[in-house]
Design goal:
By secondary structure, the protein is an alpha+beta fold. About 20% of the residues lie in helices and about 25% in strands. The structure holds nickel (II) ion (NI).
């Protein structure tokens, strides 16, 4: 990435060929430090738990044990300063280079992989989570580690070229529909994965169909990652009726969200 915050032609070509790309710096050290502090506060205070926006991606939320892979959806709703982070403009610019000028921020999430016991992120294609029948679009995710990301703490791993293949079969981990995560059970070889260690504030950028996962955190430090997902132009696709593995999901976070809304928690929903 150049000083102009643009990917080079070579980088764009590599993304199209491999389905992912890493860049060494999208957020500067000051900003990374500030974001890290916000993340730690949000996770320590269980921000969003009651409304189902924070949950254990790798667990069932109901066993009283500490979450192994806590995640917060759209964390800026709980920390407005995240909405002002400078790297967001660079991320949008990169996403538009890859998916076109109409590309917009679609959603974002914060993931914490706790020191020593953070769970692996199962192999999956982000597109397998898609639950908006009748539409088609491309998506890119920009994954930014807020400390070094290494093999020991669970850096991203990708299967080169997997974005050019089909959506493979997925299921809930352990076939347990109470777990939010999905795991790919289609044919691929995890041993062929490319690990992507990164410095703090670097970025791993991937297409929604690229198979990816991340290992456990065996280190003594938490591994935090901020992910911005961008959506390109949306086209109608009547043939897409949703994926079967999403229809059976029944998570505690979904139940908390419904309960919260029923208590009148989300004014926007009621009045829209
Ligand atoms: Ni993913």
């Amino acid at each position: 990435m150049s000083a102009l915050d643009q990917l080079s032609h070579e980088e764009v070509a590599r993304f199209r060929q491999d389905g992912f790309l890493t860049v060494p710096c999208i957020a500067d050290p000051d900003e990374v430090e500030q974001l890290r502090g916000v993340f730690d506060r949000l996770f320590q205070t269980a921000a969003g738990w009651e409304k189902g926006a924070q949950f254990d991606l790798a667990g069932t939320d109901d066993d009283q044990r500490p979450a192994k892979l806590p995640q917060i959806l759209n964390p800026a709703q709980f920390a407005p300063e995240l909405g002002e982070a400078r790297f967001r403009a660079k991320a949008l610019s990169v996403a538009r280079q890859l998916l076109g000028a109409e590309t917009q921020l679609w959603f974002e999430h914060a993931i914490l992989k706790p020191a020593h016991y953070g769970a692996a992120t199962p192999w999956h294609q982000d597109e397998a989570h898609r639950d908006d029948p009748g539409t088609d679009y491309e998506q890119v995710s920009i994954w930014v580690p807020l400390q070094e990301a290494t093999l020991a703490n669970g850096c991203m791993r990708y299967i080169v070229g997997s974005h050019l293949g089909p959506i493979l079969e997925h299921r809930s981990p352990n076939n347990d529909p109470r777990i939010t995560a999905l795991e790919c059970i289609g044919p691929f070889d995890p041993a062929s994965a490319t690990p992507c260690p990164l410095p703090p504030g670097g970025a791993a950028i991937h297409h929604c169909r690229t198979l990816h996962g991340a290992g456990e955190n065996h280190s003594s430090m938490p591994r935090r990652a901020y992910i911005l997902a961008f959506r390109g132009p949306v086209r109608p696709n009547p043939e897409f009726r949703g994926y079967p593995w999403n229809l059976t999901k029944k998570t505690a976070a979904q139940e908390r969200k419904v309960a919260w809304e029923n208590r009148g928690g989300m004014l926007g929903r009621a009045s829209r």
